User: Fold these one by one.
Assistant:
Number 1:
Amino acid sequence: MAVWTFGNYAARRQRDNADQQLAGALGAASAVYRNTLDEAGQRARKTASSRRVQRAFLKGRESELRRIQSTNRDVVLTRKPSGAKIPPNAGTRTVEVLSGNRRIGRVIAFVPLDRRLAARLTRAANGQRVVLGHDGVLTGQNGSVRLQSRRQLTGTRDVLVGGSSYRVVATRLGEGKRSAVALVALKRTSAIAGAANAARWRVMGVGFGLIAALLTIAYAVAPTIARSRVSRQERDQAERVLAHVGDGIFLVDHEGVIRLWNPAAEAITGLRADAIRGRPAQERIPGWSAITAIVPVAPKPGGAHEDMGAETVPLEIAGKEIWLSIVGVALADGTVYAFRDVTRERRLEDQRSEFVATISHELRTPLASLHGAALTLREHGQDLSAQTQHDLLDMIAGQSRRLADLIEEILVAGQLDNGSLHVVSEPFDPEELVWATAAAARVRVDESMQIDVSMTTVLPMVRGDARRTRQVLSNLVDNAIKYSPDGGRIELIVHADDEYVRFSIRDEGLGIPLGEQKRIFDKFYRLDPDQRSGIGGSGLGLYICQELVRSMNGRIRVESDPGQGAVFTFELPVAERIATTSAA
Ligand code: ADP
């Protein structure tokens, strides 16, 4: 389309150029024609100023005048202008011959409009054809021809001459009206159209050539562009994958500088990519040298040896320990590492081994006592005093109860973990439960310990599981006894507000350091795991208490000043409010 437009534009320009050339030719021809007339005028003046001519006019010698004229072609000597024999429409210059103030004759020099003049004008017009037009007849160097229309020739137009169309530019010579002669520059319109067409096709040819060249180039480079687009798409895709993959991925170049650090790596470690990228791994990743020492680097992806599995390494970031399972693969650009956060798995693993260690210990101690007591009774029973026998049996009962409690704790913890523990939700009387728990505890303590109950007179019913609540209460009272090795007072306090009934168990025992107060509710967590204080336990009690209270829509917390004792408080929702005013 654009090529077509350019082609037409070029053709139009070519036609305009042709008009301008014709106008230029006409200008040059007009100038020559005027010169020719001026020359004629000089001729006339020269003739008029000759004494012989003047005398002949003065004396009225017609024969002399004719003689003079016969040697001066293109000049007419006449006494009366009307008698002058001048070819029609020739350009003329007239000089008057005066005697005093009286005109005695005229010398008229003329320029005939003939082929010769036309040839001269055409030459002057630099080869453009110039003809003289008069009265519908065009006179050129090759003869005359009649115009098909007798319209006056002026301006620029197309005319038909002898059956052919011409582009003409014409200008009138002289001042006359009807008899006016026109100077005409002309060119066959077919020649102009041919040149215009040639120009159009030249431009269109160049245009189409250009398009063809562009198409060829496009065709040649299209695969490269397509390839680069594909590779860009692939790169974008790879970046998206890296951004969304759950594994942390980073690249360390041969200089040990981190070049890539994906969003998962940021999320897992908390180390931001902009603080890490472009920095040495040694400087930015805590314990990097230890990591490189143990993390295997496979020579190629998937080519890892069987014994080159991922390595689990600890990383301490901002005082927090995280465990990563990490593996490396060598690349041309360095080493790419992929890692997963296995902190949770690691903790579970730790808990499992802690559990095994604690439980084995917890089982072994009462079992050893049971075994010993049983053996003693069997082998020396009859030699022992009644009191000793009683004490041994007492011990067997106590230790087997401890074993049964431990096994119960393990079972409950397992059920809480897998959600199979059944907890009912119904109203029960908290008062009765507290008194019963205190009474059961009193039986187990010696005189160094005092167990008190304090509660508001009227307590609302609690919504929950009475049996599980009793289990929580006894557990907390047992702990209070256990962790008060020097005895003291234990107080069970029960308060209620509109929404909750609060059970607090206060002791004057060892207390719990502030930093440990949250963790004691974790499964298997013990302040004294090696039982250096000689106080045993599985580390499951508080975990079970917390989970049971939660399952009854309650909360549990601890307050403690180490050395001053501890207060464990749990609250359970009120089943129904106690009416404080009676209906009227
Ligand atoms: P354990 O079987 O060891 O008693 P618990 O889960 O009941 O396990 O308690 C976790 C840890 O909390 C205990 O090892 C102990 O260090 C601490 N603890 C619990 N109750 C008390 C308390 N009343 N006074 C001081 N420390 C306590």
Number 2:
Amino acid sequence: MPPLSATLFVPMNKRFYITTAIDYVNGQPHLGHAYEKIVADVIARSRRSLGQETFFLTGLDEHGQKVQQAAQAEGKSPQAYCDELAADWKAFAKKLELTNDDFVRTTDPRHKEFVQAILAKLHTAGHFYKASYTGFYSTKEETFLTEKDRRPDGTFDPSYGEVVELLEDNYYFKLKAHQQWLIDYLEKNPSFVQPDHRRNEVLGFLKNNELEDLCLSRPAARLNWGIPLPFDPNFVTYVWFDALVNYISIPAAHGDPILDLGSGVSVPGNGAQRAQPQTPDAKSQTRLWPADIHVVGKDIVKFHAVFWPIMLKAMGLPLPKQILVHGWWQKDGAKISKSTGNIVDPVAVIDEWGLDAFRFYVLRELDIGPDGNWTDAGFKSRYQAELANGLGNLVNRSLSMLKRYRNGVVPAKHDELAAAAAKAADETRALLKQNQLQATLQSIWGLVTRANQYVDQTKPFNLAKDPARAQRLDEVLYNLTETCRVLAVLLWSFLPGTAVKIYAQLGLTGAPDKLDAATWGGLPAGHKIGEPAPLFPRKEER
Ligand code: ME8
């Protein structure tokens, strides 16, 4: 049998696999980290809600010079330093109610062992070479600088800190050889990097620059906080051959057969493709790779869209289906920076306003792609208009009226808002499949607005005063109550806590976590709802 093209081979029972960037462990999580993780969480939840088995991975990038130095400065071992911070980051993931299925730390033995095994295979297959290099090195940025990095006056940007001249032996990965292959791949697979303008940037970069081979090591004498190269203990792995590999080391730890180093990943020599093994008990296995989506910020596109595909090609593995690139947040039009104090503390915002208000603002304000600008005034205004006066008011007055006028008992089914609800549900399904999160929220709020107008137009509070109009009041109350139920289902991926509260207030058990439940008419006549309570309390101006 001729070898299958590895890039085309995807097993039938594979789970939808989504990842985030793994965050550097130095420091505390900020708005940008929170945003990326929430975007990935909404996509993961929405895929589950659409009925797809899903695996969501996030975690921490713990090796490197900065961590080593920060630990030293605090008089701790790097591992103890990472362990303490990792506890905070894991607590942060919980605070955001992320539904990640695993949390990777690059200091996990399961990750380190996999990195070493893959490095050994790549080395044996001839993808690496050792060379001496003299160059300017920024300790602060852990990177060699070239003449191109000099400013017109010949100096390096102060952001690089102290720049020293180094002569160093290191190991290099033969990246250059695959440049044309990658250009062709990007040309043929327009959805590989999204949004389009990011793909065009990557293609422009590849067409106008000759790739340099990738340095994958640092001498252990200079940096020992890293994974030792299995074939030369005088060196540790440098950042990307450690960090990027998390996307496959964790699936391997979950038993993904495509990543079984014993029989699966048989690294070919330069350029070759290989066939994937098929096993008879395939159904029971956790098949994750290739990832469906890597969610990453705009600053690390090159690593994900250039280095990573070439690394995978060398490993003989299929490529991820998509690198989904988000923009960066600023605050009040300026860079987020701890040193200038221009920060948004996600935990403080969540403690004051609630998690769903935070999730709503970042997802509604910023589409995946462009840069965003956080303003406290913008946050408060969306809270007041869209959450408190929009969704909150609709649910609260609808359920309170049902309680007051019908003792909380759902009247007979009526379909006046059915078309509007079906439109929002259809759009939600279609847009979520395209990861159009902001557009989905706009569509859902179309239904919120329509239902609030319906209250204003039908005036149930007036109908209630006239016993002859009891039938009409029943109709209106059914439409409103059922719309609230549909909204809970549509909102689940975005505002899970709110969706569950709406369900509970409707007297329904469980979570509204399957989009199929958005079909109109789910509330049966005679069902008794629970207690209404404000979802988004109005805040006093301060
Ligand atoms: O880059 N707005 O880690 P990191 C939006 N460890 N996103 C932002 C942001 C902002 N202001 N600031 C940072 C790393 N991010 C590596 C990744 S992946 C194998 C290794 C995003 O902690 C950033 O773009 O510096 C990245 O996607 C993520 O936060 C982690 O950044």
